[in-house]
Specification:
This protein is an alpha/beta fold. It is 36% helix and 22% strand. The chain folds into 2 domains: 109 residues, 2-Layer Sandwich (Enolase-like, domain 1), CATH 3.30.390.10; 211 residues, TIM Barrel, CATH 3.20.20. A hairpin with a 2-residue loop joins strand 2 and strand 3. Bound molecules: magnesium ion.
Length: 340
């Protein structure tokens, strides 16, 4: 029997349009690993986005991919077995595992002649609007970024410094669209955090992501109990076992393919969160159209989407998918619908 499952990959440096500053650091680019799996003349595309604070790099991804034997990807794919195989090669490294999982889903769709959103049971009519993220910056740059975001329906603001209120007021001076806030663990005092949440609610903020340190479960749980708007765990929630741990600490979770090791486990996290009556935000790292379309295929199963990767980068190697009324458009193309 002839197997022709082939795995290829190339490092790539994704450039950001603006220096990106959040509560804990700044950066101008993000290392990616672009992955392809080819079978019977069809190629599936995947991507790892390795933001530095997550601990992955071109080096760790190359070392991992070197050890992957694509003959273990037997078609039809058993994703539980495949993720078990990838986890057996090395602990952690969810982004490079996601790259393989995304490529296999894209390939799967192409082999079946069906779009990934259909394989995953999503209803495109339920696609949420995607938010556009604005990092911490000077007043002039923030105003410029808000103007660039014209046409987008929601803005996500990175907070976590002592100038938080001024940043919100600057944004409010140019737009009245709803806001999401991400504190990236930058808040420390629970009473001050609650005062801030009430103030933010008056400013039209709809949810707050990861207010305090992920290790401060009591503090985050207290804030969740008292907050008038949803509190969402992001850094605290990586893979499937973290969903149950987040129950009672947050109203909801932020799922990202680069944390969940891909689309398959992300969908299991969605199911688990629904069982636990938790809200779901699907988010992204700095990503190309590839990982964005992979997350968009699952976004209709979530409450909110924060999938702005291609809007914040300047050298996306793929075409940017269509966006209508602030929502990514899912097409009938087989696989992810990625256009080279
Ligand atoms: Mg976040």
């Amino acid at each position: 029997m002839i197997f022709d499952m082939q795995l290829t990959y190339q490092p790539f440096e994704l450039l950001l349009r603006h220096t990106f500053t959040i509560a804990k650091f700044s950066r101008n680019s993000t290392p990616l690993m672009l992955v392809q799996v080819t079978h019977e003349g069809h190629t599936g595309y995947g991507e790892a986005s390795m933001v530095p604070y997550m601990g992955e790099s071109h080096q760790t991804a190359l070392a991992f991919l070197d050890k992957v034997d694509p003959l273990n990807f037997k078609y039809p794919f058993n994703y539980d077995e495949i993720i078990g195989y990838l986890d057996s090669i090395a602990q952690g490294l969810p982004a490079v595992k996601a790259a393989i999982d995304i490529a296999l889903h894209d390939l799967d769709g192409k082999l079946q002649g069906k779009p990934c959103w259909q394989l995953l049971g999503s209803n495109p009519g339920l696609m949420p609007v995607t938010s556009f993220t604005i990092g911490i910056d000077t007043k002039e740059i923030v105003v410029q970024k808000v103007k660039e975001a014209e046409g987008l329906k929601v803005i996500k603001v990175k907070l976590g410094r002592d100038t938080d209120k001024e940043l919100i007021q600057t944004i409010r001076s140019v737009t009245d669209v709803p806001l999401y806030v991400d504190a990236n663990q930058g808040w420390t005092d629970r009473k001050q955090s609650l005062d801030m949440v009430y103030w933010l609610k008056e400013q039209g903020v709809r949810l707050v992501e990861q207010p305090m340190l992920k290790t401060d479960m009591d503090g985050n749980a207290w804030l969740t109990e008292h907050s008038p708007i949803p509190i969402i765990g992001d850094e605290a929630v990586q893979r499937l076992p973290d969903v149950a741990k987040a129950k009672g600490v947050y109203h909801g979770i932020n799922i990202k393919l680069m944390k969940s090791a891909g689309m398959h486990e992300a969908q299991m996290m969605i199911k688990k969160a629904r069982e636990l009556d938790m809200k779901i935000l699907i988010g992204c790292m700095s990503e190309t159209s590839c990982a964005t379309l992979a997350a968009a295929a699952l976004a209709p199963q979530c409450d909110w989407a924060d999938l702005d990767g291609p809007l914040l980068t300047s050298n996306n190697p793929y075409l940017t998918p269509d966006m209508v009324n602030g929502k990514w458009v899912l097409t009938d193309a087989a696989g992810l619908g990625l256009q080279l």
